[in-house]
Design brief:
The chain has 387 residues and is an alpha/beta fold. The chain has 16 helices and 11 strands. α4 packs parallel to α5, α5 packs across α7 and α8 crosses α9. Its EC number is 1.14.14.3.
């Protein structure tokens, strides 16, 4: 297995009680809640945490993109990736992912990723996503165009990476007379593309297509949902006439390790419950704007969200306890033995080959995050790599 370390880079100094006067920490929470001095310290601490992953033996680190939210401070994840390139020499840097429909010119993403790939000498993993529903409120992009914008942007970027330019592009959403990106990517024919998702039927079929065979990464989902979606990808691959490799299957989850199960629960409680109750408090219209998902995928997403409780369903469903999150398998918390067993159990059922551990989450502070990262690396990571 390949093991990567992921941080959302949440804004931990957030005045959570005061933020409750607003519908969510997404989209319309006034930016006066952000203190630039504290924000600068947050960036420094998070980059230190991720850069430290190399000497601890991780295969890679992950960053991602979100806008106008305290949930994650990376509206431009390519900038964080650039900083990590300078702080590391070996590990992969996965940008999971860039929200393709939100850009007006996909060539900028093709060029930025090519730059990063050259700067890192081929260590970039490109994660492509549509962006969650809230991003469409922030950007005023029509959510009914989400799928078509994503697919056209993806096709344009892949062609720009693999075909000598300039060439002419006349699409439904994008029009270019000279598609001719400088520089070209270091990895040939292009950086690997991963697809993070919560299990959209369309996404599984698209990612598993023999023309792509993109690694599919299930995020923020209960254990049973993770297994169901990864097996659905395997079956889709079989329907296409091939057997999916372990490297095409991945799972991302928040993890906390301590000497005992009881200690781990106690130390992780505040940070984990803040993540799922305070930072993920998306109201239904923010999570699923009209036209964003097909009816089948919407039902599936709502089932997955219901499994982790309040997230995505407003403020009336009550707070989630860490005990329930652990019981559902949405969070992995415990002693090294317990954590290893929980990950192994899913790996044995699905054959997944990539595990992304979120070792800092919610309001978890720097010291416990470092302890968690070091203990995971020393007691869990070696056994997982051997699977």
């Amino acid at each position: 297995m390949k093991i990567l370390n992921f941080s959302l880079m949440p804004y931990r100094p957030l005045d959570i009680p005061a933020s409750k006067d607003y519908r969510s920490v997404w989209v319309n929470l006034p930016n006066r809640f952000f203190d630039p001095e504290k924000g600068a310290a947050e960036y420094e601490a998070y980059i230190d945490l991720l850069a430290g992953s190399e000497e601890l033996g991780f295969d890679g680190v992950c960053v991602n993109e979100h806008h106008q939210t305290a949930y994650g401070l990376m509206p431009a994840p390519n900038l964080i990736a650039s900083a990590l390139i300078q702080r590391t020499k070996r590990i992969k840097i996965a940008i999971l992912g860039r929200a393709l429909p939100l850009v007006n010119n996909p060539m900028t993403i093709a060029e930025e990723f090519s730059m990063l790939d050259c700067m890192s000498r081929g260590r970039i993993i490109a994660g492509f996503v549509r962006g969650i529903g809230a991003e469409y409120h922030s950007s005023l992009i029509n959510p009914t165009e989400s799928h078509s914008r994503f697919h056209e942007a993806h096709d344009l970027i892949i062609r720009a990476w693999t075909e000598t330019g300039p060439f002419d592009w006349r699409g439904e959403h994008y029009e270019l007379k000279y598609a001719n990106p400088w520089p070209r990517p270091y990895q040939q024919p292009h950086p690997p593309v991963w697809v993070p998702s919560q299990g959209s039927l369309e996404t599984i079929e698209w990612a598993a297509d023999p023309k792509r065979k993109y690694p599919f990464l299930v995020t923020f989902s209960a254990r049973d949902t993770v297994i169901k979606n990864l097996l659905a990808y395997r079956q889709q691959a079989r329907d296409f006439g091939y057997e999916a490799e372990p490297g095409q299957l991945g799972w991302a989850a928040p993890v906390y390790v301590a000497e005992t199960d009881e200690q781990a629960i106690d130390e992780a409680r505040a940070g984990m419950e803040a993540l799922f109750n305070d930072y993920l408090n998306l109201t239904p219209e923010m999570l699923l704007p009209p036209g964003y998902s097909s009816m089948a995928s919407m039902k599936k997403l709502m089932e997955a969200k219901r499994a982790i409780g309040r997230s995505g369903f407003g403020k009336g469903t009550g707070r989630q306890s860490i005990e329930r999150l652990i019981d559902q398998g949405t969070a992995i918390v415990g002693s090294p033995k317990t954590v290893l067993e929980k990950i192994r159990a899913v790996q044995s059922e699905t054959g997944l080959g990539n595990f992304v551990a979120m070792l800092q989450f919610g309001t978890l502070g720097n010291e416990p995050a470092w302890r968690n990262q070091r203990l995971f690396a020393s007691e869990v990571l070696p056994a997982l790599k051997a699977l």
